[in-house]
Amino acid sequence: MAAASTSWYSRQTTLGEPRQSSTGQKNGLQPLVADLDAETDNIMESPLLKLPPELVQQILSYLSAQELARVAVTCRSFADHVDNELLWLNLINSYLPEPIHDPGLFDSFRSLYIAHHPCWFIPKHKIWFSDTEHTGNLILARYDHRRGVIEAYRVIAERRSHQFQIWDWNPDVIIQSFDPKVILWLDDPVLLLKNHREGRPRYLHGEIRMPMPLEIQHVFNAFSLCSKYLPPNLDASKQWPPPIIPSTHRVYRDVELQLPDWERNPRQLEEVSEYGFRIRRWAHFRLGMPIFTAGRNETLSTFATLDPEVYTPTQRKPYQGIWVGDYSAHGCEFLLILQRDRCDGPVSVAEPIDGEEVTLKGSLEAIKLTGDPNVPRGEISFAADDLGPDGLVRIADEGLFQGARIVRSRGHVAGLGFRDDTFISSQLILLSTDCVAHYWETMGHISYYRRLDVDTLLQT
Asked: Segment Disordered: which positions (predicted)?
């Protein structure tokens, strides 16, 4: 049994990734197994194993998958404990917003976990946005238990029929209602990670081809992991997410393919970033299997996630979140609205108690998660420097915006290719914590923005 445990460990200690061993090391594995088998009866039982089994299981529940694999090789009893399916079920559910209760298409929870390791972080973080010029992409990821796949789809929004509105305060301003239809584009998955019949894909060996429906149109896709280590002295333009978005984890966006594969991609599990990945898409019309040699004109997109604290609203910061806005000829675009504490005043982190009136403070920034050729993704769309008394313009008393707080703001405009960008005076109309309007003063136009319900979309 000890030999069997060691054999399992040798295959799974990196959970499916072949170990980087020399021929001599591989040849030396069998004597090691034999020695362990011969000495099994002489190994002193660990004091830990004298505990009741349920306590041992409780202790093991704090370990990662790699740590469980290492524990399993130590002795027969620990190998039996690690085989407990509940441990692997809990590991999987720690990554899923909605827990599962059976392994689905797989013969065990352990085989299910191994099938998608080390990519479980993708459905865990669920919200991902890319650096694709200039538009970017916003996608939502999930685990489809029915099909046993990790998948991600693009979030798109389209305007529905609108009506022109009259603003009594300034009838010359053009206002159109905005009630967008937001959906996941299920016809064209951006990411699709399946359980390969020929064995687990070697994620640490570069790119993995993702078979997609678009292949019938000769469009191919490949997935690769990102390293959590950044090259030294890296320019901010080659980091994703961009520095303007608060994040404790950034990855390298090698848009010019300057780094060699061994430096750009992680080679060990310890180097894998759980906050980024890459997707390459290209067309291949020649005969033969499409190998990953599409050239520099292919689309290579780096995806990063958002820390939940930057998009989760609180009583102090009720406008934080992911929003969709009306950008006229550019269509609908998605934004991250941040509320920041002002640096020139005291910072209060305590939440108000129930029933206490919230006083708006600090600044508000709307950063584009998707963009257009004028103001691209990763740039500020509009900002209000002070939501408090110093920034207040007035409280609206006209019918359309009755009771709304209106504060001074700045709107970001630019020419094609983000040239000659500048900020112009504007006003932000705070209708509710789910709807705001932006008055572009010099343009004589008001745009609406509405909060996005991510959890509802994921249930599609």
From this structure: 1-28
CATH number for the domain that contains residue 102 = 1.20.1280
Six token digits for residue 141: 């990821």
CA distance 176 to 214: 36
Domain that holds residue 133: 120-160+179-305
Q: Which residues pair with 272 in a beta bridge?
A: 227
CB neighbours of residue 294 within 10 Å:
17
CB neighbours of residue 99 within 10 Å: 10
Whether residue 266 is preceded by a cis peptide bond, meaning omega within 30 degrees of 0, is no
Report strand pairing: 419-432 vs 445-451: unpaired
Among 269, 275, 338, which residue's Cα sits nearest to residue 302? Answer: 275
- What does 149-211 look like in DSSP terms, one character per residue? EEEEEEEEEE-----EE--TT-TTSEEE----EEEE-TTS-SEEE---TTS---GGGS-EE--
Mean pLDDT by 10 residues, the chain (460 residues): 41 44 40 44 65 87 89 87 92 95 94 94 97 95 96 95 92 95 94 73 83 80 92 89 95 74 77 95 66 56 96 96 96 97 54 59 97 97 96 96 97 97 98 98 96 93
Task: Specify if 288 maps to a domain.
Answer: yes
Record the pTM: 0.84
Alpha-helix residue ranges (DSSP H) falling in 83-221: 85-93, 109-116, 121-125
Q: In this structure, is residue 442 part of a structural domain?
A: yes
Query: Which residue in the block uniquely carries the two structure tokens 């009866």?
Result: 41
How many CB atoms neighbour CB 289 within 10 A? Answer: 7
